[in-house]
């Protein structure tokens, strides 16, 4: 988990992040998921090279992560805490709360060739 700094005053909280400082890579892409139906599943893939940090900016959801040997469920529900996913981690996202917003910081631009979309292929290469 990555715990980001916060500056608080009577007007509210401000959290910030910098690539290669708070985030362990240079940020090349940012995307976010929103309006996700509560019974939907996202993810279901791994990356050969890409690293990511995943945040719940609003609401909550579950990340199921698997490195080929160990599996874990991580609940994200705090916009200051991001889950760092190195390459070669299978991930599934589910149990979205109503109004959840998932933001992802990525180390590379989108590249379909970087994806494992079949779990069996991922396990074979781990």
Q: Can I get a quick summary?
A:
With 126 residues, this protein is mainly β. The chain is built from 1 helix and 12 strands.
Q: How would you describe this protein?
A:
By secondary structure, the chain is mainly beta. The chain has one helix and twelve strands. It has one domain: Jelly Rolls (Sandwich). A hairpin with a 4-residue loop joins strand 7 and strand 8. The chain is globular. A five-stranded antiparallel sheet has the order 1-9-6-11-4, with no helix packed on it. Strands 8-7-10-5-12 form a five-stranded antiparallel sheet.
Topology:
Elements: E1 2-3, E2 6-9, E3 12-15, E4 29-33, E5 42-47, E6 52-58, E7 61-66, E8 71-76, E9 81-85, E10 90-94, E11 101-106, E12 115-116, H1 119-125
Antiparallel strand pairs: 1-9, 2-3, 4-11, 5-10, 5-12, 6-9, 6-11, 7-8, 7-10
InterPro entries: QdtA_cupin_dom, RmlC-like_jellyroll, RmlC_Cupin_sf
Domain Sugar 3,4-ketoisomerase QdtA cupin: 1-124
Pfam families: FdtA
């Amino acid at each position: 988990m990555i715990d980001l700094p916060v500056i608080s005053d009577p007007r509210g909280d401000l959290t910030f992040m910098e690539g290669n400082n708070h985030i362990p890579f240079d940020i090349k892409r940012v995307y976010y998921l929103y309006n996700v139906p509560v019974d939907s599943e996202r993810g279901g893939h791994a990356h050969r090279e890409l690293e990511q940090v995943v945040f719940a900016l609003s609401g909550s959801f579950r990340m199921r992560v698997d490195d080929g040997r160990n599996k874990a469920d991580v609940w994200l529900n705090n916009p200051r805490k991001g889950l760092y996913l190195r390459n070669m981690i299978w991930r599934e996202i589910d149990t979205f709360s109503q109004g959840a917003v998932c933001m992802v910081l990525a180390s590379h631009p989108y590249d379909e060739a970087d994806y494992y979309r079949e779990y069996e292929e991922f396990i074979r290469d781990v």
